[in-house]
Amino acid sequence: MNTGKLTISYSSEFQSKLDSELPSNYELTLTSDISDMNTTQILNLFKSFLLSCGYCEHSVLSGVMSLVFSDWVDVVQQRKLCEEYGLVMGEDLAERFKQWKEDEMSSQELARELLGSSEVVNA
After folding, report:
1. Residues ≥6 apart with Cβ < 8 Å to 28
2. Is the model's pLDDT at 2 over the cut of 70?
3. Which of 37, 99, 105, 106 sits between 20 and 30 A of 56, alpha carbons compared?
4. pLDDT reported for residue 28
5. What pLDDT score does 23 carry?
6. Domain boundaries of the chain, sorted by first residue
7. Which pLDDT belongs to residue 120?
8. Could you tell me which residues come within 8 angstroms of residue 72 by beta carbon, excluding any fewer than 6 positions away?
9. Global pTM value
10. What CA–CA distance (Å, rounded) separates 120 from 123?
11. DSSP string computed for 53-80
């Protein structure tokens, strides 16, 4: 049986020049048993922790994406993830658009053959 424990801590000192109800300093600690968690659950736990520390969701998600699409990650792995989530890498856009146009023309030709008409109305 695997056992694992994750502890994340964050401390901050905040000095406001305004009369504030916020504490001047605080510390957050999260401890969780991760022995039965998968990677997605652990990353969601970390995301929740970062949000509770005041990071905005966009920054957290952008950070995750920068880990996936950095130069340190093998392009083959990046392409597998793109396929899994229905994404297209920038360098593949031209080829993908070309294929889409060819498919569009083929379906219009097929529609013309089936309808016996030279005019096909785009749906």
Report:
1. 9, 10, 11, 49, 52, 53
2. no
3. 37
4. 81
5. 61
6. 1-55, 88-123
7. 56
8. none
9. 0.63
10. 9
11. TT--HHHHHHHHHHHHTSTTS-HHHHHH
Count Cβ atoms within 10 A of the Cβ of residue 34 and give its class: 0-12 exposed, 13-18 middle, 19 or more buried: middle
Q: Report pLDDT for 79.
A: 95
Whole-number Å distance between alpha carbons of 67 and 63: 6
Hey, which bits of the chain come out as E strands? 5-13, 25-33
Residues in the chain: 123
d(CA 61, CA 120) in angstroms, rounded, equals 44
CB-facing half-sphere around the CA of 59: CA atoms within 13 A: 7
pLDDT of 121 reads: 58
Q: CA dist 54 to 9, 18, 28, 82, 116, Å?
A: 14, 19, 11, 30, 63
Q: What is the pLDDT of residues 99-123, one digit of tens each?
A: 999 999 998 888 888 887 656 555 5
Tokens representing 31 are: 């401890």
**Buried/exposed 83-114: b ≥16 CB within 10 Å, e otherwise:** eeeeeeeeeeeeeeeeeeeeeeeeeeeeeeee
